[in-house]
Amino acid sequence: MTKDQASSQIVARLFAVHDDIDRRLRAMSGRLPALHPDDAKQAPADDASCNPLVDQPQPLPDMIRDLLGQDSPIMERQREAIARLGVRRCRLVRTPGDYYEWSLEKRKKFLKAPSVSCLCKSMVMVNKKAPLDGTDPSMSPYYLVIFQYERRFDNDKLIEHLRSTAAPPMPAKKRYNFRVAPEDDSFRLSGFIHNAVSPLGFAHMEIPFVLDRRIVDTVDFFWLGGGEPDVKLAIGVDEFIRVFKPIVASPVYHDYLGTRAMSSGTRPRLDAGRQRPRIVPTAMLLLYLIMGLITSLPMLPARQLLMTRYHVEPSSMAYLLGIVSIPWFIKPVLGFWTDSFPIYQERRRPYIAVAMVGSLIVNLLLAYAASRLTPIAVIILLLTLATAMTVLGEVAINSIVIVNAKLETNHEVGTLQSTCWIWRAIGMIVGSGLGGLALKHLTSDAVEVVFTAVGSCAVAGLAMVPFLFEAKLVHGQVDSFATRLRHLAHFWRQRDVLHLTFFVVILNGMPTIPDTFLYWMRNRLGFDFGFFGNLDVVKHCAHLAMAVLFRASLRQVPIRQLLATTIAVSAMLGLSTIVVVQRWNLALRVPDQLFVLVDTLATAVCKELMLMPIVILAARIAPDGVEGSSYSGIMAIWNLSRIVSEEMGGVLTYALGVTSATYDRMWILVLICNLCALIPLAALRLLPEAPAPAYHEVAPPPEKPALRPVPSAGLQRRVPSGTDAEPLITCSASTA
């Protein structure tokens, strides 16, 4: 052991003795300043605006430094490292003796950090299976791993990342066995004692540093050990990556469904950091409004085109619309593509722009084709392409929201998504109303006008893209294609994910007959397409009302209880359709239109209440980095199940002999479908009672944190408990 190391150990142990004495005195007399009442009266320690060090007895560690006649050797080593490495943005702050007894929230306030996410720990890890003389970064015997306090180290995640980055052939998993390095080894390698390991002044710089990707994604700077147990280092993320060139990985547990969050005492807030995908509220909400318009505006005109110009039968309508809906259940493929292949270092905004441009082109082609005698195969192809553009846009937009929605606490769960769905429902209402009005008043060229209007909406959506914020990805932040496939495969192997998927299939896969009922209302009740537009407006008004209600009060209702009630009520209300099919409503003097409106409203309310909990669960379990593909996968299964339910309804329609001219067995068809709707009640135990807890809160972005240079670069006195942090050493571009 060198002379400097011996001196460092002696000073560090004297600090530890002082901390123990300090804690004991506090336990006996409440606070150390109380032993000096005259000094204590001068300035309360809890007042951050005063200087509690004025005219107070000198703390023991500073007395030790005075006796030594020099600053701590550790601080000297830190200064030397700052100069040698060319560090331009960092700060060292001394903390009180009882710092480690505080909650993370109290530590955050003391350090003036914007969030608990900025508080990190550094550990020296040893790979017991690696050769001691290994120089390969993917097979080093030691690593310095840095991750956030509220997250837990995951041995398997670090192994998986190192194996995926190793040179071929890939090392076997048995060649890795990570453990926390013994204190003697940690001191020998780093030159720092336990609870004080710092990257600055690290003794063996050849050891690879591993930085948690979550730090890169969510904060602008972070705090970690500063070389002494009561010293903390703040350094910018960009600066850390520039100076130390770490391995950016995710060596921590992901917050999958059913995984309990660490009990840190507080819920940290998401930082307005360099990599936070912040949402500009107006642009994002307007984009959801536009997506609602693009989705709902062409629905009714497309059906009218197939019914009146191409004379499609009810049973065939379900098959053709099933083809048009194919992009909805290849949604995870599009999500995986956006996750894996960024454009100009962005994974969301460029794909939104591509979707809007594609939607413009396809809808203009549809308007042209609808005005001429075009084969039905071409119409179906163009409708399918238009749906694909809509799906691509939704995948990219939803991914931005999911990143934030995952970070909500159980108390706030669903707030962000329900807000976006409110605006989407408003767009659906406007689109459905305009579509119905166009078909009612523009008899000759209504379809062409509607498709042209959809193209105009796409132009408006394209105009919103520049106002969205998406941080550019940095080097090392995008995993390889094979790594992402492994992450996705691991996600789908989770038991809770499989349970949710199976429940979605059962819930939304029961037979339904929307198109058959549309034909029946058209041919038997004589409703025109203007009334069908009104029905769509009523349906989307119900979606809007339920999104508002869910956001206000139903988010906290246990998921099983909410779904059980909704499923039972939905099935009972669905049986009321038999009343209008058998025309019993006329005996009750209830007009057909009023009965159908009320029935549509009730059905839409139940559907929305069933969808919202699924949407929230799907967002909560989406792992980091593959939000688009994982969330889209579950929602694609929801959409695929809906297509399957309509196809099953078409099969039942054909089997019972219900056609556009024969509706004698229509009531049997309605009865079978509503009895099948009760089957999901048996599968409710597959779901949790509440969404998985999350680590973070979504909060309005505070002012971006900055490491402001402080003129003095001197060593500060020890800070008593209850005061704000002051810098020991600071450096900036001008002082490095």
From TrEMBL:
InterPro entries: BT1 (IPR039309), MFS_trans_sf (IPR036259), YbaK/aa-tRNA-synt-asso_dom_sf (IPR036754). Keywords: Membrane, Mitochondrion, Transmembrane, Transmembrane helix, Transport. Pfam families: BT1 (PF03092). The chain crosses the membrane at residues 279-297, 317-338, 350-370, 376-401, 421-443, 449-469, 497-519, 562-581, 666-687. GO terms for molecular function: aminoacyl-tRNA deacylase activity. GO terms for cellular component: membrane. It is a multi-pass membrane protein. It is found in: Membrane. Its main location: membrane. Residues 701-736 are annotated as: Disordered. It comes from the Eukaryota. Belongs to the major facilitator superfamily. Folate-biopterin transporter (TC 2.A.71) family. This is Uncharacterized protein. It comes from Plasmodiophora brassicae (Clubroot disease agent).
